[in-house]
Amino acid sequence: MKVRAIFQLFLLSAVLLVAAGCNRRPSDPLQGAQTDEYGVITRMNPDEKTVYLVFTAHYSRNDEGAFENFDGIVPVLDVLKEKGVKGSFFPTGECFRVDRYKEPLKRIIREGHYLSAHSNKHLLLCSEEDRSVNLVTADSLKNDIAGMEAELTGLGLKKEEFSWMIPPYEYYNEFSAGILRELGYKLVNPTPGILTGEDWAPEGAPNFIDGDTIIDSIWDLDRKESLNGVILLVHAMRYPDRKDADRTYTRLGEIIDGLKARGYSFSSFKEIGGSSVQ
Known about the structure:
By secondary structure, the chain is an alpha/beta fold.
């Protein structure tokens, strides 16, 4: 009788352990997150084999979007849907005001992706020659962000639903990063070492980088130090004077397939939601 009771107790313990394992929360995506000198996150949990695809865009009014636009949005959404992957989108407020992007922006929300913004007017926040030199005042930056927020709330989103942000040009300093945090934003930036954001220069320009070199930079970083927690930027913009093969967004399917083949999964900032930055 005593042996039977002990056996039943053992079985109950085993069941409880299995249940605990099934209900265990996934590891924190912010655990051990890497930051730059301004405290901006540049890589999520480096122990998780997870990649965060982020898409930025701006619409340049002075040339009616000839150079900067959001024309890659529909092809990007189509590929993400086909591959069963969720992404995070950060267009500027200007993109929201272009008629042909209004339905794709709604589609981002409808299909379960994360939508925030990349500022309103895509302001350069500090000097490219001397990063300590501010090009905006606190008031001008706050006014710009207010314009961005008006577009996001106009789509029915609440502030807590778009509290993650990639600063304009992925470029900032202590002053501007501080203002954005004061406004309630958690800042992230693409992981260094990957060239996917360098697809804007026209063919023949001194700083032109071809598509193969851009894609190879992803696999090079994987070989060197892994892509765990990487924030991988893709411009959802159709820059002129480049072949399709040299536009990163046209090779999104290839990137996703390559990451899956290497054992990586995908997440978005919607899954992180209101997580706080330590």
